[in-house]
Amino acid sequence: MEGDLNLNQLKAFYYAANCGSITLAAEKLFITQPAVSMQIKALEVRFGIRLFLRKKKKLELTELGTRLFKVAKKIFALVGEAEEVLTQAKSLAPDVLMIGSTKTLVRHLLAPYISKFQESFPKVQIQIDEGSSERMVQSILEDRNHLAIVGRVPYDEKIEAIPYIQDELVLLAAPGHPLCKKEPISLHELIDENLILREKGSGTRKVVEGVFESLGLFSSAFIETGNVDFIKELVSIGNGVTMLARMGVDEDINKGRLKILELKEGPFILDIDIVFDKARKLSGADQAFIRMLKSGRRDGQMAYEIPGHVIDHAGTADTAAT
């Protein structure tokens, strides 16, 4: 329609108003001074308005020109953001996003972020590697993965770790287990129980061993495995008890296959970190994925709030498990 706004004319006005000079505006726009003047004049004629009071030393905005300048400033700030998004997408196109994490974290935390990232950057190839936290940290040092999201374990000095979120470890048993009748219970009562734990090298195992050591208890598991589904199956049929991160067992609890046992000690916190090699420059894809992870968390919260516990939140959380 006849009154549609011409963005080239608006741009000429914006630069002239921002610089206070037709000459400077022309230099920034890489066009001639007459061209800038013609664009501004055309804008004024089209809408029957006056935007500048033309004085010898400097352009001065009319009241209407001042109002339009404020709006134009917002418009071209958004244009700048749009250009940044498009430039970022172009720079990410040849990248490969190589992520290492535990099977539980991939399933319960990373899956939605990976899907969202793929929607935003469809040309970026995504490779996901799964293993214990310790193995995934080692994969960073061996350049098999660019990023890893892991339960906190001892890190090599070459590793950069960004504290990400937290989850709570819970003691689990089958609903009919004799310990269910004794709640709340103490970890000292697990001495004669068949304790089934994650394999050494997992962030969960490190926390459990630290807990038992602090209480002066023998922390050796009667069964240990990296297969969380196998652990949950054994526990659900009454063949032992386990300590796992809360997120990975929510579905089993809701279905009545597992029960969280209230403990006298605790809470026991699992820290989740984003790690990478200090010496390796993060690619555009790496940086974009880290930003996406950070934007999805909610500050000041853990993965789960367990009734009856008062927790001093040292980190931030959304959902997590390992």
Describe the structure.
The protein contains ten helices and eleven strands. It has helices at 7-19, 22-29, 33-47, 63-92, 103-120, 133-141, 203-214, 228-236, 250-254, 284-296; strands at 52-54, 59-61, 96-101, 125-130, 147-151, 159-173, 195-198, 223-225, 241-245, 259-261, 268-277. Strands 3, 4, 5, 6, 7, 8, 9, 10 and 11 form a nine-stranded mixed β-sheet that branches. The radius of gyration is 30 Å and the shape is elongated. It has three domains: 7-92, Orthogonal Bundle (Arc Repressor Mutant, subunit A); 96-164 and 271-296, Periplasmic binding protein-like II (D-Maltodextrin-Binding Protein, domain 2), CATH 3.40.190.10; 166-269, 3-Layer(aba) Sandwich (D-Maltodextrin-Binding Protein, domain 2), CATH 3.40.190. With 322 residues, the chain is an alpha/beta fold.
Concise structural overview:
The chain is an alpha/beta fold and 322 residues long. The protein contains ten helices and eleven strands.
Give the overall pLDDT as a whole number: 85
Strand residue percentage: 15-25%
Number of domains: 3
CATH architecture of the largest domain: 3-Layer(aba) Sandwich
Fold-level CATH name of the largest domain: D-Maltodextrin-Binding Protein, domain 2
**N-end to C-end Cα span:** 59 Å
Structural class comes to: alpha/beta
Q: Show unreliable segments.
A: 299-322
Radius of gyration (Å): 30 Å
Element string (H = helix, E = strand): HHHEEHEHEHEEEHEHEHEEH
> Helix proportion of residues, in percent?
40-55%
Q: In the CATH hierarchy, what is the class of the largest domain?
A: Alpha Beta
Q: Give a quick account of the main beta sheet: strands, pairing sense, barrel closure.
A: 9 strands, mixed
Total number of helices? 10
Number of strands: 11
